[in-house]
Design brief:
Blueprint lengths: L12 E2 L23 E8 L3 E2 L3 E4 L10 H5 L2 E3 L2 E5 L5 E4 L1 H14 L7 H14 L11 E10 L11 E11 L10 E6 L23 H9 L4 E6 L4 E5 L2 E8 L6 E5 L10 H13 L5 E5 L4 H9 L3 E8 L3 E10 L2 E4 L10 H14 L9 E3 L1
Parallel strand pairs: 1-4, 10-11, 10-17, 14-15
Antiparallel strand pairs: 2-3, 2-4, 2-9, 5-8, 6-7, 6-8, 7-19, 8-9, 11-12, 12-13, 13-14, 13-16, 16-17, 17-18
Helix pairs in contact: 2-3
This protein binds 2-OXO-4-methylpentanoic acid.
EC number: 2.6.1.42
Protein name: Branched-chain-amino-acid aminotransferase
Cofactor: pyridoxal 5'-phosphate
Length: 373
Amino acid sequence: SMSTSRLDASKLQVKRVAQRSEPKPSDELVFGKTFTDHMLTIEWTMDKGWDAPVIKPYGPISLDPASCVLHYAFELFEGLKAYRTEEGKVVLFRAEKNMERMNKSAARICLPGFDSEELIKLIGKLIEEDKHLVPKGQGYSLYIRPTMLGTTDGLGVGYPDKALLYVITSPVGPYYKTGFKAVRLLATDFATRAWPGGVGDKKLGANYAPCVLPQLQAAEKGYQQNLWLFGSEKYITEVGTMNVFFVFKDPKTGKKELVTAPLDGTILEGVTRDSILTLSRERLDPKEWEINERYYTIYEVAERSKKGELVEAFGSGTAVVVSPIKEIGWQGEDIQVPLLPGEQSGELTKTVASWISAIQYGKEQHDNWSRVV
Ligand code: COI
């Protein structure tokens, strides 16, 4: 019987750049436009399994024009961040969750699985090579982009027998230079992001390209992002490329409810989403709060806004962490989401952002959510 090689971090080969680059001034960092000196690449074939991992200078990859990724979208990616702590250590935030999701994405499009711990070790080695480029300071981090492609050459539609896994890293600053900036959303039912039985819960590149045109259409009307609705019920699912949370107040009990859509296969299993739910369940007083993953619709939001029961709303994702929402365009009107007086967010939005940031920057420990590179 034939046995194939597993992903093995101990086989790493390193080819360093001749000269390391200087860090860019922090205020010049535009999200995802600056990359570090090195990349990690690992080739896979069905016959041999995972080849030896290589860290080499950042640069172009070469693909046959018939490569299956270019025709049939055999592509998936991840997004996670490494943070520099005040003591100068570099820590990864919940990398296991991203590895778990990456394996699920791979399985769905017939790309190879791998040992999560081995890839985390390799990502650690990659970050170590370019450690001097991990920016310092609140809001700054190293965005890590693991990517996997099917590289089988040929136009027949079938499972890839060759693949490339690579990781690039990008020093990033705060999404909004002036701290939080609340956004306007257009409730969107003229396009659908994901549907039951589809792949909306997987981090496939193919989920992202079709979202750009609806985003431009929203922008033409003066809204930054789409609030994605689903079905005739007009369920609220996600916002832009992020998960979304709403806060309602029950007028009878005075209790507040933090709500986000349930993971039913149409919702990306966001690591920030999970972190917000976990911390809220641990830290918000259950006498004052309910935390629910449940279906809710734009009709409910519009209705409760009229009654003064809509308290706040925010998006959540790795890139931006939390993104406050101030207005939602729906049926020709704007639903106003309250903000704190003179501020760009609501109270809970600020609170969860500070909880998460304390853990990400290593000021606070939470389970094993951060690990030193
Ligand atoms: C996120 O981190 O929220 C994203 O999904 C954005 C990424 C696609 C740039």
